[in-house]
Design brief:
With about 280 residues, the protein is of the alpha+beta class. The protein has three domains: about 35 residues; about 90 residues; about 130 residues, no CATH class. Helices cover about 55% and strands about 10% of the residues. The chain has a five-stranded mixed beta sheet. It has a two-stranded antiparallel sheet with strand order 1-2. The longest helix has 28 residues. The termini are far apart.
């Protein structure tokens, strides 16, 4: 005697809860005398499954690198602390969008095969990835700026103070031999002159102002409009002398240093990048 619709549905629900595949359910319904029409409606074959989710997962997977490229510049301002952690965050942000197609793909396969536990795995696995990613990013943000970022902020403020000094002194930078004394009144804070990564006991100083930074000796006293390429010309950098050139550089930050350029902006440089920057105005 064939099962009626309600009995057949109950059998399908029970077998799916036990993890049976669609093919196993179809065989059981066939053994119970159900018609092929009833079987095809209650336990469709994989070929009859909807292709929407797999196609959506594939589309999102292809678009995820572009999504990450848009999101990274915004989050990098909050999350990156050093060149190495910036690389880590870039990798995590590239992986984050992939969790969406992974979820949809696994759920799609689970739906087509009739395995409910596979759908649960499809939701849980990307969730673990996202939690791991957010714990690293938020943990890094809550720890606050690292030495490299604090140093970069310092050297940026020192460069801006030199620009303000120049505006008060007929567009001339301060003399390299006594630049800390010349700009101290614009900052009035000694810790700005010190790099958090400078562990030397005796730092160079002028007029009692200790500093961890070196001024490009060739920039001292020059007019702001005398630079051919100010955006490529070194003004201040992590160093071991009050003023000097490449030889006075101190690579304190992950085999690199922070540098302020003659146009006022500051950035981290690797050793090789720094040696390629201009000293000649």
């Amino acid at each position: 005697m064939s099962l009626n619709w309600d009995e057949a549905r109950k059998l399908v629900v029970q077998m799916r809860s036990e993890g049976a595949t669609s093919e196993e359910i179809r065989m059981s319904l066939r053994d119970a005398g159900c018609s092929e029409i009833k079987i095809s409606k209650l336990a469709p074959t994989q070929a009859q499954g909807s292709p929407v989710l797999p196609l959506l997962a594939l589309s999102l997977g292809l678009l995820s690198p572009f999504f990450a490229a848009l999101v990274f510049p915004v989050l990098a301002r909050v999350t990156h602390r050093t060149p190495s952690s910036e690389l880590l965050c870039r990798g995590l942000l590239m992986l984050a969008p992939l969790t969406v197609p992974i979820t949809l793909g696994i759920i799609a396969l689970a739906t087509r095969s009739g395995r409910k536990y596979a759908a649960a795995v499809g939701i849980a696995l990307p969730g673990v990835i996202l939690v791991f990613m957010l714990s690293i990013i938020l943990g890094d943000a809550l720890r606050g700026p690292g030495p490299t970022i604090r140093c970069l902020s310092n050297i940026k403020n020192l460069a801006l103070s030199q620009m303000i000094y120049a505006s008060d002194w007929e567009e001339h930078f301060p003399p390299a031999q006594r630049w800390p004394e010349c700009i101290f009144e614009y900052l009035n804070e000694e810790k700005v002159f010190l790099c958090p990564g400078d562990n030397r006991n005796a730092k160079h100083q002028f007029a009692g102002v200790e500093t961890s930074y070196t001024m490009n000796a060739l920039c001292g006293g020059l007019r702001l409009d005398s630079f051919e390429k100010p955006g490529d010309t070194v003004l201040l950098f992590d160093g071991t002398k009050l003023f000097g050139s490449h030889g006075a550089a101190a690579f304190r930050h992950h085999e690199g240093l922070n540098v302020a350029l003659a146009d006022g902006h500051a950035r981290w440089c690797s050793r090789n990048d720094f040696l390629r920057l201009r000293l000649e105005p």
